[in-house]
Q: What sequence folds into this?
């Protein structure tokens, strides 16, 4: 039995292969466009694209840069442009976690987990209010200390590579001079705190920072500084506010940090 038969054993018609091929060729020829028609259609599409392109208003490069600058300064973890121009600005790299000798609760950070983050700060020459002065730590009782001035901060601390954040606000700073002539910059920021990351979190309240400096906030040490909080405890023999270490940090000038971090 071949495909040329017109009826098979079951009584159904079977079409010829030749007839199918002939009909398909006839369909293609009927729907195909001539070269002239294709050229005309292509020219119409090019003309429409040209008209659309010319209707888009021209945007100058300076406008684009200005928009990019505006977007950058609106990021939660950036200082505003005015602060960057007028203050001594740094980016702090925080490493929150249990440190040897800390008086934090034994369960806090016992697993070894850490919280890493960054925040941009700027040290000003404006004297702080009485409230800010009273929030400073009272270390260095035997040495000299400068007047307390204001420190500004970005609105958010960037945590875990930008996947989390913590609301922050500025505080105050001063420079302590020890009897041997060494200088330490002490400052604090107000933090909203974080939820628990396992057995570790950033407590709500003031975060205190201390770091060696050379003359003032214009030149900070590249060494690690200490981060601490103030909590009530009995570790000194009587119940009082204690400094409890919650991590370490480093500081880079904002320009250097931007070149490194690309944000």
A:
């Amino acid at each position: 039995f071949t495909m040329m038969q017109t009826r098979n054993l079951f009584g159904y018609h079977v079409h010829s292969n030749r007839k199918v091929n002939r009909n398909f060729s006839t369909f293609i020829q009927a729907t195909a466009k001539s070269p002239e028609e294709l050229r005309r259609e292509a020219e119409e599409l090019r003309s429409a694209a040209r008209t659309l392109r010319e209707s888009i208003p021209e945007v100058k490069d300076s406008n684009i840069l200005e928009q990019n600058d505006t977007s950058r300064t609106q990021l939660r973890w950036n200082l505003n442009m005015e602060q960057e121009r007028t203050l001594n600005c740094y980016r702090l790299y925080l490493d929150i976690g249990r440190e040897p000798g800390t008086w934090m609760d034994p369960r806090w950070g016992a697993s070894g987990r850490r919280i890493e983050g960054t925040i941009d700060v700027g040290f000003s020459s404006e004297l702080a209010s009485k409230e800010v002065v009273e929030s400073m730590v009272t270390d260095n009782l035997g040495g000299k200390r400068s007047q307390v001035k204001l420190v500004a901060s970005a609105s958010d601390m960037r945590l875990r590579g930008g996947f989390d954040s913590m609301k922050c606000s500025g505080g105050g700073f001063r420079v302590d001079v020890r009897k041997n002539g060494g200088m330490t910059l002490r400052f604090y920021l107000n933090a909203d705190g974080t939820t628990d990351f396992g057995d570790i979190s950033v407590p709500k309240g003031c975060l205190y920072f201390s770091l060696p400096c050379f003359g003032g906030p214009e030149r900070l040490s590249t060494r690690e500084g200490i981060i601490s909080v103030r909590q009530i405890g009995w570790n000194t023999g009587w119940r009082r506010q204690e400094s409890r270490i919650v991590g370490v940090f480093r500081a880079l000038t904002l320009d250097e940090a931007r070149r490194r971090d690309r944000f």
The CA atoms of residues 113 and 198 lie 8 Å apart. The chain has six helices and eleven strands. Residues 35-55 form the longest helix (21 residues). The longest strand covers residues 240-253.
